């Protein structure tokens, strides 16, 4: 990340007062030899047009932030030595392109793998203005426009809406404004109860008045605040269910409060029973979001956006697209992705996400959603992302949020080119390694759509039965002869939540794509896969292959001429990834071998 920023040449020591001024600054410093003119056309909003004139100069026109995005697009293509555009019009597909930080005011970051919070310490705002400008620049350079700075799990007393915090929050908003970045705050649904009101019932007039008054105060301090992000009735957080109200009633009450100021309520749909009894076979966690929300389609206010995790579980290495994203045509939706590598290697293991996002967008008609959000992978580490290569996820997320049809390979190659000046052959190796990393991780971790199997709570490293007799509803039910849960019509019925064409694709284990097989079906280990291998053999093969792939990845990493300080960090983490991959491979294979008693056809070592 630092490396890409340094390609912009000049540290941003002066404070730009507007996106236009910033655009001029960036163009003159990054492209000193190219003459560029900018022209503001407010009707173009965030969109831009780049035109190359006959004398070789460029004209960038756009709305005020459009000019900025156009300038960065031009700079990126010049620094990448791509052919410069002659005539290029572009505007973002999604209105809100959000980063959700899970930063706590005590300075910790929930699921953070890059050091402490960039914004908070010890119960207070605590930030380096220079780094805030760097972050603004990073976001603007890839078209991201909303930054929610605090964790969706809002821990008392750290509530940004209070008078004590507002002036500092307003100063932070001022810092980000020239970058076209607007702030958003996570709120606690029960907050009125901290202020002398005996309930948080959304239909109670006192509660409604409290939120209206609070919104007024907050918008007085930060007139362009994007809105509030809400995790309600989810994993122990308070919400409208306590009062017998549904989530449309809950969200619309807040929407009324922020409507006069143009604010949005981004309402998360991560609602499921996290106190499930493992003996209970009638509850299937992936069904939960649909059950809580689908029937409410059309009842949400127009300034409510439902934010839905991309899969029905929780950011596993492979999950199908959440059926809710396909089923709520009369509601504003956002898809939530997770850049923080919670289940995907903690920014120790290399895991490039864009191939996964590409698959999601292939199933998701672009017009179904109006916005996208991603849980941040940033922290106070000097390089922002802990693992320098994890920055590719932040960068390519921005490109995809702007245009979901962005070419996967080109996006990764662009990041690599902007970040490291290395010989073309090495750059190609790096791009290939990044592009294959998700599949490699999948192979050595949780097989064929089964997910989980991670160490509980921490979520790094293997523990195949860690969640098996727990309350989180994430069971694989592996026995001596079979594994998985039948989620078709004859099983839990989860598959019925999809349109028919999707049901058809997955309902028959004989034709269900391999990589989703154990998400949808319970199958014997002797089940014949499409390529003729048995299921158990495929599990063994994937794990060995994944581990061997990591061995060669690590060799490549050690050969690549990364500059320092990145080189040392990348090498050190690669060695830890190798250790992790071996643990996964050996533990998962041993687990299945012990259960099934079936030998690996190739006689490789499995520890009993
Ligand atoms: O999977 C869970 C994570 C929690 C997170 C939650 C959520 C912020 O383990 O750390 O809480 O998802 O998305 O709300």
Task: Compose a concise summary of this entry.
This protein has helices at 2-6, 19-30, 64-79, 129-141, 166-176, 205-221, 247-258, 288-293, 324-327, 354-363, 391-402, 408-419, 424-444, 500-506, 517-520, 535-559, 566-596, and strands at 36-40, 48-52, 58-62, 87-90, 96-100, 120-121, 124-125, 146-148, 182-187, 227-230, 264-268, 304-309, 333-338, 371-375, 482-483, 523-524. It is an alpha/beta fold and 608 residues long. It has three domains: 2-90, Chitobiase, domain 2 (2-Layer Sandwich); 96-419, TIM Barrel (Alpha-Beta Barrel); 447-485 and 522-596, Alpha-glucuronidase, C-terminal domain (Alpha-d-glucuronidase, C-terminal Domain).
Description of the structure:
There is one protein chain. The protein has 608 residues and is α/β, with parallel strands linked by helices. It folds into three domains: 2-90, Chitobiase/beta-hexosaminidase domain 2-like (Chitobiase, domain 2, 2-Layer Sandwich), CATH 3.30.379.10; 96-419, TIM Barrel; 447-485 and 522-596, Alpha-glucuronidase, C-terminal domain (Alpha-d-glucuronidase, C-terminal Domain, Alpha-Beta Complex), CATH 3.90.1330.10. The chain contains 17 helices and 16 strands. The strands form four sheets. It has an eight-stranded parallel barrel. The radius of gyration is 25 Å and the shape is globular. The two termini are 44 Å apart. It binds 4-O-methyl-beta-D-glucopyranuronic acid.
């Amino acid at each position: 990340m630092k490396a890409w920023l340094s390609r912009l040449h000049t540290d941003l020591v002066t404070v730009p007062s507007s996106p236009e001024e910033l655009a001029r600054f960036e163009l003159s410093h990054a492209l000193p030899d190219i003459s560029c003119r900018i022209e503001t056309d407010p009707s173009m909003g965030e969109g831009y047009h780049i035109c190359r004139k006959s004398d070789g100069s460029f004209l960038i026109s756009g709305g005020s932030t459009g000019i900025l995005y156009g300038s960065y697009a031009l700079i990126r293509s010049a620094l990448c030595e791509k052919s410069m555009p002659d005539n290029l019009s572009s505007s973002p597909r999604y209105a809100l392109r959000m980063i959700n930080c899970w930063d706590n005011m005590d300075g910790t970051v929930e699921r953070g793998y890059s050091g402490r919070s960039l914004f908070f310490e010890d119960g207070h705002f605590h930030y380096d203005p220079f780094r805030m400008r760097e972050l603004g620049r990073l976001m603007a350079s890839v078209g991201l426009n909303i930054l929610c700075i605090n964790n969706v799990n809002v821990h008392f007393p750290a509530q940004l809406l209070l008078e004590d915090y507002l002036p500092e929050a307003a100063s932070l908003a001022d810092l980000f404004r020239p970058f076209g970045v607007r702030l958003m705050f996570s709120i606690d649904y029960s907050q009125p109860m901290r202020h002398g009101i005996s309930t948080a019932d959304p239909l109670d007039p006192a509660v409604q008045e409290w939120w209206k008054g609070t919104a007024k105060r907050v918008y007085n301090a930060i007139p362009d605040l994007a809105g509030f992000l809400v995790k309600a009735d989810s994993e122990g957080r308070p919400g409208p269910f306590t009062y017998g109200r549904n989530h449309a009633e809950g969200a619309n009450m807040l929407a009324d409060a922020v409507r006069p100021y143009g604010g949005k309520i981004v309402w998360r749909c991560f609602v499921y029973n996290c106190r499930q009894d493992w003996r209970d076979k009638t509850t299937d966690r992936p069904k939960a979001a649909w059950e809580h929300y689908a029937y409410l389609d059309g009842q949400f206010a127009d300034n409510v956006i439902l934010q839905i995790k991309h899969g029905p579980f929780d950011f596993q290495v492979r999950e199908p697209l959440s059926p809710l994203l396909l089923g709520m045509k009369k509601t504003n939706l956002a898809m939530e992705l997770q850049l923080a590598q919670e289940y995907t290697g903690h920014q120790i293991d290399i895991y490039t996400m864009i191939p996964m996002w590409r698959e999601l967008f292939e199933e998701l008609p672009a017009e179904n959603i109006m916005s996208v959000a991603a849980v941040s992978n940033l922290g106070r580490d000097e390089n922002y992302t802990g693992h320098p290569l994890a920055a590719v996820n932040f960068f390519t997320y921005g490109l995809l949020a702007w245009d979901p049809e962005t070419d996967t390979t080109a996006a990764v190659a662009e990041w690599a080119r902007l970040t490291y000046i290395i010989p073309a052959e090495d750059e190609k190796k790096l791009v290939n390694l990044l592009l294959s990393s998700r599949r490699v991780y999948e192979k050595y971790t949780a097989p064929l759509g089964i997910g989980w199997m991670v160490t509980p709570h921490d979520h790094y490293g293997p523990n195949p039965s860690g969640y098996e007799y727990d309350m989180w509803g994430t069971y694989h039910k592996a026995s001596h002869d079979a594994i998985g849960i039948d989620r078709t019509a004859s099983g839990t019925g989860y598959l019925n939540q999809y349109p028919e064409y999707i049901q058809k694709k997955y309902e028959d284990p004989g034709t269900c794509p391999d990589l989703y097989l154990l998400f949808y079906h319970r199958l014997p280990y002797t089940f014949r896969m499409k390529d003729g291998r048995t299921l158990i053999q495929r599990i063994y093969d994937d794990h060995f292959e994944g581990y061997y792939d990591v061995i060669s990845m690590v060799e490549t990493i050690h050969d690549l001429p990364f500059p320092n300080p990145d080189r040392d960090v990348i090498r050190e983490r690669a060695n830890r990834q190798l250790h992790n991959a071996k643990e996964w491979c050996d533990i998962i294979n041993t687990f299945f071998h012990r259960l099934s008693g079936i030998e690996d056809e190739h006689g490789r070592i499995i520890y009993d």
